[in-house]
Write a structure and sequence with these properties.
Layout (H helix, E strand, L loop, with lengths): L3 H8 L13 H12 L10 E6 L2 H8 L5 H6 L2 E8 L6 H21 L3 E5 L6 H8 L5 E10 L27
Antiparallel strand pairs: 1-2, 2-4, 3-4
The structure holds flavin mononucleotide (FMN).
C-alpha cells in the first residue's frame, strides 16, 4: 500500500550533518507553508518565523547553544516563534507550535532535505531575539536547522507500543 505520510513519519530522522549545498528559497517557503497548515486552537495561527541563511547571523546564533556545530553546518535555519499578542492559552498555543514543527520536519523529509528540531538554544532566547532584532513579544519555540543530508546513517529507537498504552477501555480486544 502507498502510505507516503506513514513513510515520512517512520523514515524521518534528526539530521545534524549537511553538505554545503544551499537550500533553495522555494523549498524553505514550502516547508513554512506546511507549518502554517498545522492545526491551532481557535485557528489563531500563533506561529511566526525568521528564515536565516546569512552566515554571520548563523555564527552568532551558534554561540547561543551546545548545538553550535549543527547550526554552523546547516545552510538554512527556520527560527520558530509564538506571537504572545495572539496567544490565548499557553498550553494549547505551545501544542500548536509543536504541530507546526512536526509538519515542517515531515515536509523536509518529503522534499529530500534533512532537518533537526533544536530546543537547547531556548536557554538563551533573549540573546536570540537580540541577534534577530525582535522584541520579546515573540517567544522563541525552536530552531529548525535544515540542509541537504551528508548521509542517512542515522538510527533511532522507540520503546514498544505497549509501554505507552495505559489502558484500552472497551472494544473487543482482538
Ligand atoms: C523539543 C525538542 C527539542 C530538541 N532539541 C534538540 C537540540 O537542542 N539539539 C539536538 O541535536 N536535537 C534536539 N532534538 C532532536 C531529538 O534529539 C530527536 O528528535 C530524538 O533524539 C529522536 O531522534 P529522531 O528525531 O531521529 O527520531 C530535539 C527534539 C525535540 C522534539
Amino acid at each position: 500500500m502507498n502510505e507516503p505520510v506513514q513513510d515520512a513519519i517512520r523514515n524521518r530522522r534528526s539530521i545534524r550533518e549537511f553538505t554545503g549545498e544551499p537550500v533553495a528559497a522555494d523549498l524553505l517557503r514550502r516547508i513554512v507553508t506546511a507549518g502554517i497548515w498545522a492545526p491551532s486552537g481557535l485557528n489563531n495561527q500563533p506561529w511566526r518565523f525568521v528564515i536565516v541563511r546569512d552566515r554571520e547571523i548563523r555564527e552568532q546564533l551558534a554561540r547561543q547553544t551546545t548545538s553550535a556545530p549543527v547550526i554552523l553546518a546547516a545552510p538554512a535555519l527556520i527560527v520558530v516563534y509564538l506571537d504572545t499578542r495572539v496567544m490565548y492559552n499557553a498550553v494549547k498555543d505551545h501544542q500548536s507550535a509543536g504541530a507546526c514543527m512536526q509538519n515542517m520536519l515531515l515536509t523536509a523529509e518529503e522534499l529530500g532535505l534533512g532537518a533537526v528540531w533544536l530546543g537547547q538554544i531556548l536557554q538563551n532566547k533573549d540573546q536570540v531575539n537580540a541577534i534577530l532584532q525582535l522584541e520579546n513579544t515573540y517567544d522563541l519555540m525552536a530552531v529548525l536547522a535544515l540542509g541537504h543530508p551528508l548521509h542517512r546513517n542515522q538510527r533511532s529507537q522507540r520503546k514498544p507500543l505497549a509501554d505507552f498504552i495505559l489502558k484500552e477501555i472497551g472494544g473487543n480486544q482482538e
